Amino acid sequence: MTQEQQTPAPATGFDPSAPAPDATSVARLRALLREPGCRTMPCCFDGLSARLVEQAGFPLTFMSGFAVSAVRAGLPDTGLLSVTEMLDQGRAIVDAVSIPVIGDGDTGHGNAVNVHRTVAQFARAGFAGIMIEDQVAPKRCGHTGVKEVVDRAEAERRIRAAVAARDQAADLVIIARTDARSALEAGLGPERALNEALDRLRAFADLGADVLFLEAPRDEAEMARCCREVPGVHMANMLEDGITPLLPVPKLAELGYRLAAYPLTLLGCAVHAMEVALAQLAVGQTPKYRVSFERLREIVGFDAYDALLASFEGEGPGAKGASAAARKSRGRSLS
To answer: pLDDT at position 181, please?
Structure first.
């Protein structure tokens, strides 16, 4: 089956008929995770970037916490954004696309009860999955010198709470992440730190986590060992210029990975393009490398908006059909 057959038709902008995110997005994500091979997963940060991911034919995306911190507030990924801000950004992303979206739940924003509520809130926002990690709050990007993780018992409590929320109707795919490889290296050494990280992933899997994520393995050997020694579905983090080596997706599949996340690829390329454009404007030049105004209108959906607006004007059949559809929609919303 080709990717085009597996992926819903991409959104082309404003689309009032697009289905609301619901359990079907979770089901699609679970189906993708059952398929063989490794999926490329570009990470997004707002509705526009998510829509571009979908239009490019990718069947899923991930809301990057680093990228959201940067785009929404111009801040580093050091736990400065609240869960309310992340949910607000996430709703805009989920509403813009029909593909499954995984959200970054960070540490769960508190103790086990906070984790439980965070998972439930992400589910209500329309996410298909959520990632929960074991860093001490406030957390930070896993490739910028992580120093502390909670003890294993507390890490397990977080995942136990996330799984309980899932099983009590939230129904999200739970991605369990550990940063123990980086955080514990100074005290334990690289080998023992990796052993502890793998032990944590085994415990997370036993607790019912759907996907396992070892953050910042140092080389291909560590990546291979993770998949070989810890049964389950694994995600790799392909951060350009990060700690983990960048491997081709076929190689990741060979090692046993099912998802390859690219957390900052789109943001890094977008920032570069903006810096180039600003430099050209500063010397009186009009930037040449840009999409056309027509393409921008297409992406955000001007034609669909105008067509819908026209359907409500006048007394023709189109207007009557639109009115009938609106009445049916109101009836559903009140039922």
So the answer is: 97
Domain locations in the chain?
Answer: 3-272, 283-334
Token readout for 202 is 């085994």
CA angle 230, 236, 241 (to 5 degrees): 135
Tell me how many degrees the CA angle 197-202-207 measures, rounded to the nearest 5.
Answer: 125
* 25 closest CA partner among 121, 84, 116, 99: 99
pLDDT band (50, 70, 90) for residue 14:
low
Q: What is the pTM of this model?
A: 0.88
pLDDT the model gives residue 170: 81
**CA 197 vs CA 129, 158, 178, 194, 237: distances in Å:** 22, 15, 6, 5, 15
pLDDT above 70 (res 3)? no
**Cα 103 from Cα 127, distance rounded (Å):** 6
pLDDT of residue 4 exceeding 90? no
Q: Compute the distance between CA of residue 186 and CA of residue 318 in angstroms, rounded to an integer.
A: 69
Q: Which amino acid is at 233?
A: V
Instruction: State the pLDDT confidence band at 10, using cuts at 50, 70 and 90.
Output: very low
Share of the chain above pLDDT 90, in %: 84
For 179, counting Cβ atoms within 10 Å of its Cβ (0-12 exposed, 13-18 middle, 19+ buried), the class is buried
Q: How would DSSP label each residue in 212-252? A: EEE----SHHHHHHHHHHS-SEEEEE--TTSSSPP--HHHH
Query: Are the C-beta atoms of residues 139 and 106 closer than 8 Å to each other?
Result: yes
Q: Return the SS3 of 78.
A: coil
- Are the beta carbons of 129 and 213 closer than 8 angstroms? no
* Count of C-beta atoms within a 10 Å radius of residue 17: 7
Which class is domain 3-272? alpha beta
Kindly report the number of other CB atoms within 10 A of residue 22's CB atom. Answer: 12
CB atoms within 10 A of CB 104: 27
- pLDDT band, residue 335 (cuts 50/70/90): very low
